């Protein structure tokens, strides 16, 4: 299936594509080439994104070689766009690639040297990013053409991929600590525009009922296994009603210092892997919060109880993150890590509920086979509808699925997150 550039955005013209291609070729010594032809096609499977749609742009150059690009635009379906609030999420991602990423990259090159190979900011090259609230889009380097692949959505990342992801988060967070320490005014100005995109009470009308519906899905799956235990009682108090549940999740993102720029959606589908190398993608939920925003998302959504046990337990995973963080901070020229181990554990207990809140949605989503993922563009119209009506999840009845939910509830309760 082929599309026009305007399918991605009304403002994505052939002149813009020419600019993008020249940006992409600038570092290759082939800037004298021009576009012979191009084709726009789907770039991702169903179930890999809600707020935006990904396209692959295949460009044939004047010498016969091919350049592939990734275009990301807002849904054309207005019901989907307004129901999922695509505009603020695109605005955040454009802000990240146009302002935050260049700032962090500049700091790293200054502190670690221009020739550094193992960057602490492994992200795709962004050749174009614009936001006007209606026609937002971004164009990236195609990482798949470089051999990067997504971890399996259902079985999850391998051990090697989990380790790479964990280390990547630690080094990424180290950049924030370094900038905050070495250039505090610059850092304060950079994080000031970052706002909470999801777990904020002002968005209750969008998300509270949806999350409570997911809570009910979990409750039906675990109530027999946890019957008569304090785990079930604590879980039920967390979601006594939809307001209580959403208020608790909003409280989980309270700002505890020291804080960093977070990826915000650190589960495995937002990372691409090639051997031990990893690339971070999709910064639509970028946050300014404690490192636990990312780390708790990783633990709750990218590990199973068996995997945590094999790693030496949850605290062993947190310690590995902390050791990599301290090493990265030292490489950036800081005499000591601004985050102590005691502070990290305090943040884990205080902010870790955000990771659990994320897995209310992400774990059921990760258990759905690709062919069972619904078509989010099926609804016609121009106005938003309740999110819980647009999205549907099947009951979780398999024993292994129920066990995973039970294990996650126990993990959160054991650390007194609720």
Automatic annotation (TrEMBL):
Residue stretches making up the CHK kinase-like domain: 138-334
SUPFAM superfamilies: Protein kinase-like (PK-like)
Domain of life, source organism: Eukaryota
InterPro entries assigned: CHK_kinase-like, EcKL, Kinase-like_dom_sf
PANTHER family: PROTEIN KINASE-LIKE DOMAIN-CONTAINING
UniProt protein name: CHK kinase-like domain-containing protein
Lineage: Eukaryota, Metazoa, Ecdysozoa, Arthropoda, Hexapoda
């Amino acid at each position: 299936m082929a599309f026009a550039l305007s399918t991605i955005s009304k403002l994505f013209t052939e002149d813009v594509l020419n600019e993008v291609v020249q940006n992409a070729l600038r570092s290759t010594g082939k800037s004298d080439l021009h576009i012979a032809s191009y084709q726009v096609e789907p770039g991702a499977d169903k179930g890999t994104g809600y707020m935006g749609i990904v396209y692959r742009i295949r460009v044939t150059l004047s010498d016969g070689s091919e350049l592939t690009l990734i275009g990301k635009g807002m849904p054309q379906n207005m019901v989907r766009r307004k129901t999922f609030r695509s505009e603020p999420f695109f605005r955040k991602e454009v802000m990240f690639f146009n302002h935050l990423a260049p700032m962090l990259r500049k700091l790293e090159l200054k502190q670690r040297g221009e020739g550094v190979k193992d960057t602490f900011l492994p992200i795709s090259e962004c050749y174009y990013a614009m936001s006007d609230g209606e026609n937002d889009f971004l164009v990236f380097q195609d990482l798949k053409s470089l051999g990067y692949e997504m971890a399996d959505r259902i079985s999850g990342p391998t051990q090697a991929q989990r380790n790479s992801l964990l280390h990547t988060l630690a080094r990424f967070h180290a950049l924030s600590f370094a900038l905050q320490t070495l250039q505090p005014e610059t850092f304060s100005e950079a994080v000031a525009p970052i706002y909470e995109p999801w777990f904020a009470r002002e968005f209750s009308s969008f998300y509270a009922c949806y999350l409570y519906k997911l809570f009910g899905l979990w409750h039906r799956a675990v109530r027999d296994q946890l019957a008569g235990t304090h785990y079930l009682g604590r879980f039920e108090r967390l979601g006594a009603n939809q307001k209580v549940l959403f208020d608790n999740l909003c409280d989980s993102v309270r700002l505890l210092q020291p804080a960093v720029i977070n990826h915000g959606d650190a589960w495995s589908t937002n990372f691409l892997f090639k051997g031990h190398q990893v690339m971070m993608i999709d910064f639509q939920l970028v946050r300014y919060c404690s490192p636990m925003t990312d780390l708790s998302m990783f633990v709750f959504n990218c590990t199973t109880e068996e995997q945590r046990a094999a790693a030496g337990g949850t605290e062993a995973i947190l310690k590995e993150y902390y050791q990599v963080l301290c090493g990265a901070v030292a490489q950036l020229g800081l005499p000591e890590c601004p985050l102590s181990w005691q502070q990290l554990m305090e943040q884990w207990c205080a902010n870790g509920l955000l990771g659990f809140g994320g897995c209310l949605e992400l774990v059921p989503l990760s258990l759905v086979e690709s062919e069972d993922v619904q078509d989010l563009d099926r609804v016609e119209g121009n106005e938003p509808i309740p999110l819980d009506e647009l999205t549907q999840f099947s009951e979780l009845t398999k024993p292994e699925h129920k066990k995973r939910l039970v294990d996650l509830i126990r993990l959160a309760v054991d650390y007194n997150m609720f």
